[in-house]
TrEMBL record:
Descriptive protein name: F-box domain-containing protein
Name of a matching Pfam family: F-box
PANTHER family: OS06G0556300 PROTEIN (PTHR34223:SF51), OS11G0201299 PROTEIN (PTHR34223)
Domain of life: Eukaryota
Domain F-box: 19-52
Lineage per the UniProt record: Eukaryota, Viridiplantae, Streptophyta, Embryophyta, Tracheophyta
Length: 285
């Protein structure tokens, strides 16, 4: 019995020493380690030592990647987080379709936009999941955003992107309700936009002109654009980008373009008309 108790004490001392070593790590190393962890793993570090108990509540980068925990974990995590601390980046990724009609995504948008320390400091927001997002326009409050990335989201009401500080916007496989206007001007509020990627997005509406006015745009890529789920042969893409350096277009059909730019800035043009056929496993004649 004494031997067993002695072994227990020794083991406890070793654990305490291990905890002390973790607690004595410099702040920059701990911050660097936590930076690479998703939200679940970050919470689990609270058992490592006393110093780690509440560190996860003030992380400046939030990553939600575990679909099994989305329904209960995300709301609970956000409710316990220290709302007085900034969030510079938030990434939400779920490769399965959410069965809560986008409630989790809308709750994240609520948290980001209704928490003053975050709405004024967040710079990067990435939401990659298949769902309908009702509160997307609410994000316009976050004028500190510089990078925005969406994949597989849908909107059911007309939406525009109005972010004066936004420099990079990536939209992949998204579906947007665009209303009854003849001119679609989704990005009119993004006056600082430098990179714009529109890949395999669908736009629903009666517009005949797709206007992109971006005076600082340097990199533009458009692929597989569809209007009401088909190639919009009577739709004209109007691009006003005086400083454009790179232009990429990939599709099986070619939209009419009206482009206003300064050719002295243009460095790269990539136009491919067979990417859909290649993806489908056959070649164009």
């Amino acid at each position: 019995m004494k031997i067993f108790q002695s072994l227990q004490r020794k083991r406890q001392q070793e654990q305490e020493q291990e905890g002390d070593r973790l607690s004595n790590l410099p702040d920059d190393i701990i911050d660097r380690v936590l930076y690479f962890l998703d939200a679940v793993s970050a919470v689990q570090t609270s058992v490592l030592s006393k110093r780690f108990i509440y560190l996860w509540t003030s992380l400046p980068v939030l990553k939600f990647h575990d679909p099994l925990l989305f329904h209960s974990f995300v709301d609970h995590f956000l409710s316990l987080r220290d709302a007085s601390t900034n969030v510079h980046a938030l990434n939400f990724t779920c490769h399965d379709e959410l069965d809560d009609d986008g409630h989790v995504v809308d709750s994240i948008i609520d948290y980001v936009t209704l928490t003053p320390t975050i709405s004024t400091s967040i710079q990067i927001l990435s939401i990659l999941t298949e769902c309908v997002v009702e509160k997307l326009p609410q994000l316009s409050i976050c004028q500190s955003l510089t990078t925005l990335k969406f994949a597989d989201i849908s909107t059911e009401t007309p939406t525009t992107f109005d972010f004066v500080s936004l420099e990079r916007l990536c939209l992949f496989d998204c579906r947007f309700e665009c209303g009854e206007e003849e001119e679609l001007d989704l990005f009119r509020g993004c006056v600082s936009l430098r990179c714009l990627f529109l890949h395999d997005c669908q736009y629903y509406g009666r517009f005949r002109r797709f206007k992109i006015f971006a005076p600082h745009l340097v990199d533009f890529s458009i692929k597989g654009m569809r209007v009401d789920e088909v190639f919009g042969s009577d739709c004209v893409v109007e691009l006003f980008a005086a400083k454009l350096q790179s232009f990429s277009y990939r599709d099986t059909d070619l939209y009419d373009f009206f482009i206003e730019l300064n050719l002295s800035f243009l460095e790269r043009v990539d136009i491919a008309m067979d990417y859909l056929a290649a993806d489908a496993g056959f070649s164009l004649p």
